[in-house]
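Note to self: keep these together.
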Amino acid sequence: MNTSYLLTNPAVIAGLLFAVLATVFYTSSLEIPFWKKFYAYVPALLLCYFLPSLLNTFELIDNKDTTLYKFASRYLLPTSLVLFTVSLDLKEILRLGKKALVVFLAGTVGVMIGGPIALFVVGSIFPEILLGTGSDEIWRGLGAIAGSWIGGSANQTALKEVFQPSPALFAQMVTVDVIVGNLWTAVLLFGIGRVKQIDKFLKADTTAIDEVRTKIENYKTSVTRIPTTVDELLIIAVGFGATALAYAGASVVMPVMEANREWLVANNLSSVISEFFWVVVLATTVGLVLSFTKARTLEGVGASRIGSILLFFLVATIGMQMNVLEIFKNPILFLIGVVWMSVHAIFVVISAKIMKAPYFFVAVGSQANIGAAASAPIVASAFHPALAPVGVLLAVLGYAIGTYGGWLSALMMQWVFQQF
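Structure:
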């Protein structure tokens, strides 16, 4: 172990990371004008990556010891996916009307094919970005962005584990993800101030918004309660229990994958020859199945909140492996992000125009893809506080399909990469 690092003990580093997370979210919750202005421009999630990466950049912590990251990625990640998807209420989402789902899914498709289109366009102009080999092949990092922009950070990290981009490449991708994604959020929020003009352009019927608001208010009242110790233990049991089932299932699937390795590799499906891929897929599937049972009511006592805490620690362990100086080495990646986001925007706007959907569904449906549960409720509540859960519900749907959609998008980008 390199003794030049100030901190090398994983237990000490874990405590430091939790202290960093607590500081970030405590200050982001303050009503002090300075902090409100600061977090209006600097997303808390970005700091969860950035501050631990500073500790690594200045060699204050030992990033060679992957004990914390392996624990967080192998156990906390699938558990957080379960806790996010267990609250999925398909009936409630269907009550929002087909317009909300169509616009949301159009945004998902826009992300899925936007990546390959952006890689082709920018790669044709700047072919040097396609020179990477092995873990530095650009499509591997872009696959992680696809997972993030359909689902969220959990899906991003899942696909990072599946496609294994190098730490340097992933560091650049995280920056593209956060910066381009938050610029798009700013655009959506800017549009809220002109919602009447946009709805007029879309020829939208906005009466459905009032109905949705009433239904969501009733739903929230019916499930929310103060959690007890039993409730919180049930949340932990469901999350880690489902993860255990996922690992058990993966141990059954993997021999089949290994037996068909030659065919899978020949058909660019080598990513499924990964135990962790199946752990993530099966954990998400178990969460979806549980969402049709009484386990779904665990959201009323904080299932997704606990899932978020697990996820934030995972994000911090990813950050501690990044060197922030890497983000300046490949600015062309930001051009890929802009083109990619433009394709997503085109799909969302066209679908809304065809469906005559209100701008509310455009903004929230798009943000449920791009920003996930961290920011979709913020955009929704900008229309009305009672509508914030709409963003959560659609974002949870994004979590459910983010790994699948991101995986397919990455395979398409791999195909584009191989054509050059």
